[in-house]
Amino acid sequence: GWRSVQRAACSVQGAGCRAHRPDRVLPQGRRPRRRLSSVARAYGRSLPAQPPRELRAAGWRLENLDALGDFEGALDRFWEMSVAAFPGNAFYTPIDRVTFGALYARVQPLISPPLTLLARSPTGEAGGFCFSYPDVRAPQRREFIIKTLAVLPRFRGLGLGSWMVGETHRIGHELGFVGGGIHALMAADNRSQKISRRIGELV
After folding, report:
1. Could you tell me the CA-to-CA distances from 159 to 109, 144, 195 in Å, in that order?
2. Which pLDDT belongs to residue 198?
3. What stretch of H or E contains 202?
4. Whole-angstrom Cα Rg for the chain
5. What are the DSSP calls for 124-174, one per residue?
6. What average pLDDT does the segment 157-170 reach?
7. Using an 8 Å Cβ cutoff, are 49 and 70 in contact?
8. How far apart are CA 180 and CA 169, in angstroms?
């Protein structure tokens, strides 16, 4: 079945906060600059729909982290795609490869390779990736977190993002993460949230 728990997060110029009710904790005269939310999927009898047949027919495929070789090599690809995919995101701050690697190194011990996917075009070009890992903060819930979803601009509109997210949920369920997945902290107008709400509901 579906799970829906209302929660909010806000970012304020000059100060930051995350709270259930930002209007109750913001300094007087401050307004939320952007509302963030997460989306969760708790599994019932159904799982996300299968990917568009056109993608498979055209030769697109998904590869998991095991197929990408070593972790550092995979991060090279993810960084390159992030630099190309996120410049239009209001919350994206460009970082160099070393900083990017340091950020992802923090979750490397948590990674389950099948939960991280890369979309490969018919010509072998990387078109996007979905980076996920188990939520170890509450293992009894048996959930996973989708940290990053990116699709290169020239491949948007094909359904790659929805395919990767749906496949991540299917794989997660097979691996025993029956509590579902959490798509963490997305801006209300972010493309990722539109994709994620097809899978689950705001939390």
Report:
1. 30, 22, 9
2. 45
3. strand 201-202
4. 17
5. S-EEEEEEEEE--SSGGG-EEEEEEEEE-GGGTTSSHHHHHHHHHHHHHHH
6. 91
7. no
8. 7
